[in-house]
Design brief:
The chain is of the alpha+beta class and 137 residues long. The protein has five helices and five strands.
């Protein structure tokens, strides 16, 4: 029974990822899917949530794509880095311009391990969301 539930959950997450990816077709969807060293996310600065997350970033953090998109991204962060991240995201939301940003914050994996991530830039998309690049430091 557990194996069947796990298989269903995995399939549901794959469907969730692919439906999210379809919304960004033509806006670097292939890059988001296949990048190895630098990960990409599409985030909504109004809701402070991810719309699309690189599968490899999801894997590194131990969360499913659905889990990463269902909750505000602040919930995945170490509490010590939330305020600085909120300030950076609010600045981006206010300007609505493509910007080079550079800040580091710490996300907590599903197993409790801290992972330091460096955010490098953000591009405002026609959809009203941000495409950001991130890598582990």
């Amino acid at each position: 029974m557990n194996k069947t539930l796990t298989d269903i959950e995995r399939l549901a997450d794959e469907i969730h990822y692919k439906s999210s990816l379809l919304r960004f077709q033509g806006e670097m969807a292939d890059l988001i899917t296949h990048s190895n060293r630098v990960w990409y996310v599409v985030s909504n600065t109004n809701t402070h949530s991810f719309e699309l997350v690189s599968p490899k970033l999801c894997h590194r953090l131990g969360y499913t794509h659905r889990e990463m998109c269902e909750r505000p991204y602040f919930e995945f962060m170490d509490t010590a880095t939330r305020a600085a991240t909120r300030a950076a995201m609010d600045d981006l939301a206010d300007t609505k311009n493509n910007q080079y940003v550079k800040f580091v914050n710490t996300y907590i994996t599903k197993s409790g391990e801290p992972v330091r991530l460096e955010w490098l830039d953000a591009v405002f998309l026609s959809s009203g969301n941000w495409l950001a690049t991130v890598h582990e430091v």
